[in-house]
């Protein structure tokens, strides 16, 4: 069922892009969108509504620097001929999209955009490198230092202070250090941690095989759906290679490579096919040029990339 809805949403995406001035088509789309919340969920997943949805002409992105109210007002002025119920449905849908962005903005101290890298100096003297589409908040207290990673990936060079441990909270996991350099990444199913130097302790969610795992330089850990697993050793100088705009992949599923590329791409990448999780690749991928990185994947047997529009790529792994 979900696959059918995803295909329908993709078809709408292409039709609306091909006929941006077709009002009847927009009304039909509104009726489809308002039919159920599952339709909107499929549309949101397919188009990253915040900067891809073009129901009544291009919509401004609803993000950290743009208020939702002007966006809604400007958009509504463009669609006076829509049925009241359709307009109401669209307002509800846009609110659904805007609220998570606004909530993330209110919770976060720093948020990076697509393809944006940023270096942040914290109050305690620690340094944080933020990957694209990353959000953090930092609290510097007398008994300890706590940084919340709400989404994305970050590399830390922590100022040593034995009296005030430094903790990174990401989802259900907590990484505790005194003085070290390491990276933390939030994934769809858990957390990835890799250590460049020093030592960290990772407290995993309840139900994981080990509640507290210590890592040293060159070691990495993946926590996924409550299970924690040590990964193969990594050269310390390759930890958080995204800081140099590259992804160094060693025997990883193609789906994992695409997940690395997505935050650098200004549009949307749909990945599908039976080999998404099972087909494994190795290589160095240029994150600063997402299309080039995707093209590199086509060198792997039976992988194709379709450029549906300037902002939509479909990767098929057969």
Largest sheet: 7 strands, mixed
Q: How many individual helices?
A: 8
From the N-terminal CA to the C-terminal CA, the straight-line distance is 21 Å
Q: How are helices and strands ordered from N to C? A: HHHHHHEEEEEEEEEEEEEEEHEEHEE
Low-confidence stretches: 48-89
Chain-averaged pLDDT? 80
CATH topology of the largest domain: Jelly Rolls
State the shape: globular
Please report the first level of CATH classification, the CATH class of the largest domain.
Mainly Beta
Number of domains: 3
CATH architecture of the largest domain: Sandwich
Q: Oligomerization state of this entry?
A: single chain
If strands are numbered along the chain, what order do they take across the biggest sheet?
Answer: 1-4-5-7-8-11-12
The radius of gyration over CA amounts to 21 Å
Question: Count of DSSP E strands?
Answer: 19
**Global structural class:** alpha+beta
Domain FecR protein: 109-200
Transmembrane segments: 84-104
GO molecular function, one term: sigma factor antagonist activity
Organism: Hephaestia caeni
How do the strands and helices of this protein lay out in sequence?
Elements: H1 2-18, H2 23-34, H3 37-47, H4 49-52, H5 68-78, H6 84-107, E1 110-111, E2 118-121, E3 127-130, E4 135-140, E5 145-151, E6 153-157, E7 166-170, E8 173-177, E9 181-186, E10 190-197, E11 199-203, E12 212-216, E13 220-224, E14 227-230, E15 246-253, H7 254-261, E16 268-272, E17 280-286, H8 290-297, E18 303-309, E19 312-317
Parallel strand pairs: 5-7, 16-19
Antiparallel strand pairs: 1-4, 2-3, 3-6, 4-5, 6-9, 7-8, 8-11, 9-10, 10-13, 11-12, 13-14, 15-17, 18-19
């Amino acid at each position: 069922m979900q696959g059918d809805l995803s295909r329908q949403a993709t078809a709408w995406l292409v039709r609306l892009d091909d006929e941006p001035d077709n009002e009847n088509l927009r009304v039909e789309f509104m009726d489809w969108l308002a039919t159920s919340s599952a339709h909107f969920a499929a549309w949101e997943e397919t188009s990253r509504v915040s900067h891809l949805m073009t129901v009544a002409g291009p919509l401004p992105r609803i993000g950290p620097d743009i208020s939702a109210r002007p966006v809604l007002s400007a958009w509504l002025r463009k669609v006076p001929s829509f049925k009241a119920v359709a307009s109401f449905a669209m307002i509800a849908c846009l609110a659904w999209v805007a609220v998570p962005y606004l909530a993330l903005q209110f919770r976060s101290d720093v948020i990076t955009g697509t393809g944006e890298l940023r270096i942040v100096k914290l109050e305690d003297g620690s340094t944080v490198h933020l990957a694209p589409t990353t959000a953090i908040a930092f609290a510097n207290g007398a008994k300890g230092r706590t940084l919340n990673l709400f989404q994305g990936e970050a590399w830390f060079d922590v100022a040593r202070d034995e009296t005030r441990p430094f903790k990174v909270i990401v989802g259900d996991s907590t990484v505790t250090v005194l003085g070290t350099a390491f990276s933390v990444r939030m994934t769809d199913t858990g957390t990835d941690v890799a250590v460049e130097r020093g030592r960290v302790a990772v407290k995993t969610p309840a139900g994981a095989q080990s509640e507290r795992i210590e890592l040293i330089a060159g070691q990495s850990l993946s926590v996924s759906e409550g299970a924690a697993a040590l990964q193969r050793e990594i050269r310390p100088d390759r930890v958080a290679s995204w800081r140099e705009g590259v992804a160094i992949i060693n025997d990883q599923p193609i789906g994992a490579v695409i997940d690395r590329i997505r935050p650098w791409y200004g549009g949307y990448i749909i990945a599908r096919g039976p080999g998404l999780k099972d087909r494994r690749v190795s290589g160095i991928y240029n994150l600063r040029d997402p299309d080039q990185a995707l093209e590199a994947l086509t060198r792997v047997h039976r992988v194709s990339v379709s450029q549906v529009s300037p902002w939509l790529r479909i990767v098929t792994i057969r």
